[in-house]
Amino acid sequence: MGKGDQVEWFEAVGGYCERVDAAFWSQPINAMTNAAFLIAALWAWRRPDLPVMGRVLAVILALIGIGSFLFHTFAQTWAGLADVLPILMFILVYIYVATRDYFDASRGVSWLAVVGFFPFATGIG
């Protein structure tokens, strides 16, 4: 990979949501509303009857709030990954848990549903 092909992790990203410049608080509403993810994650975590996978989803939900806050404030390539990777993690874990719990599917079928997400997402993307 040549120097021109390298990812610029600290390069400003623009042209999305209401962002008009690279200032930290250029997207104050998007940045502040991420507190809702943290509140929801804390609420879920504190439930005494929450199963282990529910706790896993609560942690990922908190990571979504943090990652999205970072992206909507720093607006750099690394922060974009901090935004989208927890969302992808949540989707994949949720597909596994929902397939297993709602459809009473085996672990193998649940993993197959997770793997099946990728061609499905590619097909509709």
What does this molecule look like?
This protein has helices spanning 28-33, 35-45, 52-74, 77-102, 107-124. It is mainly alpha-helical and 125 residues long. The chain is built from five helices and no strands. The mean pLDDT is 93.
Mean pLDDT: 93
Query: What is the strand tally?
Result: 0
What structural class should be given to the helix and strand makeup?
A: mainly alpha
Radius of gyration: 17 Å
Instruction: Outline the low-pLDDT stretches.
Output: none
What spatial form do the alpha-carbon principal axes imply?
flat
Strand content: under 5%
What does the largest sheet look like?
none
| Domain count | 1
What count of helical segments does DSSP give? 5
Helix and strand sequence: HHHHH
The percent of residues in helical segments reads 55-70%
N- and C-termini, Cα separation = 27 Å
Which structural traits does this protein have?
single chain, 125 residues, mainly alpha
Q: What is the secondary structure topology, with strand pairs?
A:
Elements: H1 28-33, H2 35-45, H3 52-74, H4 77-102, H5 107-124
Question: Would you kindly provide a brief summary of this structure?
Answer:
Helices cover 67% and strands 0% of the residues.
